[in-house]
Amino acid sequence: xxxxxxxxxxxNNLDKQIQDTILFAAxxxxxxxxxxxxxxxxGKAGYNVSFWKSINTMRMLxxxxxxxxxxxxxxxxxDLDEVAQMSNKHIRMTAREAVSNLREVQYNAWExxxxxxxxxxxxxxxxxxxxxWEANMKKMLxxxxxxxxxxxxxxxxxxxxxxxxxxxxxxxTWFYSHSKKEIYKYDRGVFECxxxxxxxxxxxxxxPWRFYTHHHLKVPHDDIVRAQVEEKEEMIILxxxxxxSVIWRTVNDTSEIEKLLxxxxxxxxxxxxxxxxxCHDPLIRQMKMNHGVDMMDEVLSGTIDIPEATDEIIVAxxxxxxxxxxxxxxxxxxxxxxxxxxxxxxxxxSEHTSSLPxxxxxxxxxxxxxxxxxxEWLAIMMSLPFLHGFINERWQxxxxxxxxxxxxxxxxxxxxxxxxxxxxxxxxLKILFSQRLIQSAEKAGLNEEQWGSRKNRMALDPAMxxxxxxxxxxxxxxxxxxxxxxxTACFDRMFPSLSNIAAGKFGMDAKVLLARGKTxxxxxxxxxxxxxxxRESYGNEQGEPEIAGELQGKGDVAILYCLQSSITMxxxxxxxxxMVLPSPANERAIKKRNDGYVDDVNTWAGExxxxxxxxxxxxxxxxxxxxxxxxxxxxxxGSTAFHKCACQILQWKSNGVTxxxxxxxxxxxxxxxxxxxxxxxxxxxxxxEPNKGLGYHMAVDxxxxxxxxxRSSKVEHTCVAAENSRVNYxxxxxxxxxxxxxxxxxxxxxxxxxxxxxxxxxxxxxRAFLPKxxxxxxMPRAVVYGPKRWGGLGLNTDMYCLQAQCAITYLVxxxxxxxxxxxxxxxxxxxxxxxxxxxxxxxxxxxxxIAYKGTGWILNLRAMMKEYDMSLSIEHxxxxxxxxxxxRAILEEMxxxxxxxxxxxLLAAExxxxxxxxxxxxxxxxxxxxxxxxxxxxxxEWRAESTLRWPNHIEPTNAxxxxxxxxxxxxxxxxxxxxxxxxxxxxxxxxxxxxxxxxDTFYTAYRDKDTVYYRDETGLHKGIPNGPYKYKIPLxxxxxxxxxxxxxxxxxxxxxxxxxxxPRRMARRPRLRQxxxxxxxxxxxxxTEIDLVSDAAVHVAQEKGAVSWRAxxxxxxxxxxxxxxxxxxxxxxxxxxxxxxxxxLRTVIKKFPKLEQIRCHCxxxxxxxKVKQPTYGPGEVSGPDxxxxxxxxxxxKKEEERMISFHHVMGxxxxxxxxxxxxxxxxxNIGCDEGAELSxxxxxxxxxxxxxxxxxxxxxxxxxxxxxxxxxxxxKGEYDIKKYLITRLAITEETLDDIDTAAIEAARSVHTxxxxxxxxxxxxxxxxxxAHCHHHGAHNSYCPGCGEPGETFEHLxxxxxxxxxxLRQSARLKVRRMLRQEKFxxxxxxxxxxxxxxxxxxxxxxxxxxxxxxxxKWIWEKQQQIGLTEMVKGWITKAWVQVLAEYDDTDPAGQAxxxxxxxxxx
Length: 1466
Prior knowledge:
By secondary structure, the chain is of the alpha+beta class. The protein is built from 49 helices and 47 strands. It has a 7-stranded antiparallel sheet. A 6-stranded mixed sheet has the order 40-43-42-41-44-45, with helices on both faces.
C-alpha cells in the first residue's frame, strides 16, 4: 500500500501521542527536588545579583519595581521599604557586593554541590533501598568535581561563555577596501563582494572605479570604509569613498536581533542558489529534481543523456558519479533500524548533547532505550519514514544556534550557524549515514586524497603529506608548487538533492533519501539568542531561491561532504595526471593531485628536472589543475574563497657551491577565474613565508619561525591564565596535562624546533606551573622529569623530549600501519639517504652528521635521536649495497674521518652527486685497488652511468673536485700526497671480493662462470665463447646481468671479439644465524598438513629464556627445534612465546614447501587472540609487542594460499589434568616446555627486528617493545636522574642498579600528587633543611629543634629535640605494627627494626647480629651498601625480594612494595 496520505497522518498522530505520553511521564517523575547536583547557596547568590541589578536599573530609569523583582524580594526576604530608602550609590555598592559574593560562591560551587549530593542522594537511595548507594554517591561526587574543574579550566583558558544578547551590524550599504581594491554590499546580514574589472588577467588597478556586477559572499577586510556607487547593468561604478569612521552599531533589542538573524541566516543559506556557478547548469538542475531521486538511476548507471555542448567540467563531474563494479556489488542500505542499533546509538551519546527544545531531549531517549520493549516500538517509529519515504512532522522544526567564530566578535556576518534537530531524527541519520553508509563507501573505495570524516585518518596525516612532499623536493632539488584552497561555507552550500545522489552511489536506498530530502526542504527554522527562541521562523517560500545547505550539526553532513568531495576528486583525476615524485630507485613514489581535509584542499604540480623555464611550466600546470578543481567544486554548489587561497613554490638557484632555494618570486603569478570569468590574482608566498593550514604553519624552505611564534603565544596564554588564577595543585596539574600539553602535542608532531627554542617553551611552562603544583621551581630537572621508580616526579614538560615523543610515536604508528603516509615518508627517507651518500640508514645510526645545509622534519628527528641515543630500524628503506667485501660509502667515510671544513664537505658532496656514485666500488677500478685519476682530476668529465634518479645539482668546478680529492686523502686514500697531480688514488684497503648483489652503476663488462656480458650504447650483450677466455659479442641484448656476475676489464682482440680473464671468486654475504638445536628431523619434506606446537621458558630475574617448537603430522612424525632467546629486563613470557611461534612458522614454510595446512598451537591465549583479531586502527599497531604480532600476520598474509590457523592449548596440563585426560597436542606442549628449559643457559643471538614488524625503536641499546612515547620519556628521564642520584646519594653505579625500582614504582604509582611530591623531596634530599635553605639565601643554617648549625638531612633522624625523639619512636613502632599486619616474617622484621634503631637512635647492631642467621646478615650488608638511612627514605635493595621469597614465595615483590610504602609514609 505504501505511504498514503491517511497512513502518514495516522503515523504523525501516533508520534504526537507518544511524545505527549513521554513528556507527561517525565514531568510526573522528574521534579526539581530530586536534583542531585545543586548548590542552594549558588542559586541564592545568583538570585541576589539579579535582584540588585534589577533594582539599580529601575532606579536609574525612574520606573516602578516590576512584579518579578518583588517576587525575588520575597524569596530573598528583603524588605522593599528599606530598599526604597537607600541612595543610588548605596544600591550600586550593594549590587557590587552581590557580584563579589557570587564569584566567591562560584569558586566553591563544587563543594556546595558535594554537600547537596551527600544529603539528598543518601535520603533518596535509602528510600529506594539501593544496596550500593555509597559507591554510586562516590561516582557522582567524582563526576561533579570533574565537571566543576573542567568548567573552571575552560573559563580560565577560553573565557567565560556568554549568551548572544547583542550583535553588531554595519551602518550603511556600500563599502570599499583600500587594501583589497574591492567593494562590498551589505545585504541582509552578509557582505556581497564585487571584484574590480581588470585590464588584463591578474592585474588589479591601483585605484579601481569599475567593478563586475556579479558577486560572491566574503568577509570584508578590516580597513573597509563607507562608499557610494552607481549601479549599471554592465558594471558598478564607484563614485565616492568616505573617510574612516564608525561603521558598526550595537543591537541589543530582542525583536531586532531575532529579525536580523532570521534574515541573515535565510540569505546565507540561499547563497549557492543566488550566485553564479556551474551548479545552475540545466543538466544539474534536472538531476536535483524531486530531491535527486528521479534521475539517480540514470546518473549512477552512466546512461544519462549528456548533450554534446555540455561543459567538459560538468561532463567529468557527472561521469564520476557512475558506480564502479565494486559499488554495484554493495548491499542496499535500507531505512530499517533494529532495536539493537537503536539502543547502541543512544547508549554512546552524551545526555548533555543539545537537541531541539521540544522536551524530548537525549536524557529521555537514553532512558527509553534501556527498556527492550519500548526500544523496539520506538525503533519501528524511527524507521517508518525512511522505509516509505515520507515526513515525520515533528522533525521539520529546526533551531539555529548562533556561535562566535572568534571570541568576542559578534559582527553579524561572522557568526556561525549550528542547527539543533530532534534527537531521534539526528540519531537516525547517524545510524544510516555515519555508520552504515561510510562503512559501505570505505568498502567500495573512496578517493585516497580526501582525509576528513574518515575512520583511521586525522588532520595530522594530510599535514604530514604536505610537509614531507616539500621536504622530498628539498632533498631531490626539484620544482614543486602547491595551491592551498579554502572553500566558502562548504556545508552551507551543499544541495541535499546532490548529496542524495552521492549517497545513492554507495548503496543508500532511494526511500531513505526521499524522506531525508523532503524533511530538509520542509523545515521551518527558528533562531536562538540569549533572549530565548524566536517566535518567527524562515524556510523555503514560493518564488524565493531555494534554501540549500546541509545543516551543520546534522548527523550525516560530514559523511555526505566526504562522499561528494571524493566524487569531485575522482572527476579531477580524469582531467589531470598525477604528480609523481619517485624514489631514487623508482621502486615507490609520492603520487598525488590533491590533499584535502574537509574544505581545506591543496593542489599540486611539480617537475623532476631543472631546465630553463621549468618554474613557469610548473605554475601553468598548477593553475590549470587548480582551476579545474575550482570549477568541479562549483558543480556541486561549492565556492572557493579566493581571498583565503595562497600559492607556494619551491624553486632553485646556484650559489657557486650548491643549489639553494630561490627566495625571489619574480614574475611568477597565479590567476584563477570565478564563475563569471572574472580573473582573480592568488597570493604568492615566498619560500620563507608560511601558509597556515590544518593548524600548522608550513614554509616551503622548512623554517619554523611562524610556527614557533604561534606555539609560544599559545603556551604564554595558558601560562598567564594559570599564574593569574586561584588553582590548587590538582587543578594546576590537570590544566598542564589535559589542556596545555594536549594542545601542544599536535603541533610538536610536525614541528622542527631546535633545543634552544624548546628550552624557551620549557622554561616558561615550568616557571608558571611548578610553584602551582607545590614544586620548587629550582628543583633539579632530573628529578622533575625522572620516572617515579627512581624518585622522580615523572612530569613531561621538557618540550624537546616531548617533541621527540610525538614525532617518533607518530612515525612508528604510520610506518606500521603501512599506508599512504608510510609510503611518502619512506620515499622521502630514500631521497635523503641518496643525498647523504651514506650506506648506513640515517635513522638507524644518527651519530654521524651529513653534509646538508637545510632543515627538515627527518633531519630534526635525526638530531633528537642523536641527542637521546636512539635509533630506528625501518623496513623497505633502500640503502646502497656493498659491492665488494671491504666496500664503503665515500661520504660516510669522509664524515667519520673529519678533516674537511663545512664548506669543503658541501663541495665534496656536490661533486659526488655529479659523479653519480655512492660507494667506493662505483668509483674504483674493476679490481678494487685504486681510483683512476681521470675520474677526479680537474676538468674531468667522467660520470658513472646509473640506474638511479639523482638529485639535481650544479656543474662542478675545480674547487668541488679539489675538496673531493682532499676528502679521499683524509679518509680512504690516506697515503696519497696532496702535491702530486694526475695520480691514481690507491685505496688504503683493497676492496677484496665481489658480492653477488644488484648493481646500480653500469659497467662495461661483467663476468660469470660461463660467459661475459658486454655493454655498449645499444645495450647489454651476452658473449658467445670463441676460444679460451675469448668471446664473440652478438647483436642481441639482454638485461640485467646475473647477480652472480661481477664487473671485469676486457680487451678487444678483433671485430666483436674480446678477451678477458677468468671469473673471480665471489664473497658470501655475512648472516647472523641463531644457535638452534634440531632435536628431531623425522617429518617428511613433502608433508602437507601439520600441527605446530610451541612454548617458551623465561627466567625474568636471570634475564634468560629459550624457545622450543615441534611440527608433527597425524603419524606423529616430528621436526623439532629449540634455541635460546634474549630476555630483556622487565620482560615476560608472552613476548618470547610469540617470537618462538614466528620462527617456527618461518622455518616450516621454508623447510616444508608443500604444506597446505598449518595448525599453530600455543598456551599463550592472549597472544593467540591478538594474532587472530584484525587491527582496527593505527593506534593499535604501536602497542606492546605489536612488532611480533605484525610479523606473524605478515607471514600469514604472504602465505595466504596455505591454511594457517591459530589455537590455544592448555599450558602445564600435566599439573592440571590426569594423565589419561591430557590430549595429544597438550603432550607436545609439555614436551616443548621441557625442551625450552634445556636451552635456557645457552647464549642467545642478540635480538634483531623481525621481518614484517615494519619499524622498531631502540634507546640506549634496548629495543622498545612497549608504548613508544612512554619509553622515550622514561629512558631519557632515567638516564638523567641516575647520573644525579650517583652524586646526590654518593653511591656507585653498580650500587644504584641494586635498588629495587620495581618496588618503588609499585608503591608510588598509587600515591596522590601531593604525596608524590613529598616523597620525591624526601628521597632526593630536597627537604627544606637548614643547610639547604642557607645555600639558597636563608640567613642561617641552624636546626630549629636543637640549634645545631649546618642542619643536614641525616640530622633529622638524630636530632636530640624531645618532640622529634618521641615522634621518631612512635614512627618506628608504627612501622613494626604495620609490617606485622602485612604478615612480614619475624626475622625480616628484626632486620628492619634494627635498621630503624641504628638510623634514629644510633644503636650498634653488633650485639644483635651475633644471633642472626646468615640471610639476615646478608640482607643487612646489601642494604648497607646503598645506605641504612636511604632505606628509611624508600631506597631498598633488590635482595629484600629474594629474602622474602625464601620465607613466603606467594608475592615477595608485592611485600617489597609494601615495605617501601610503609617506610616512606612514616
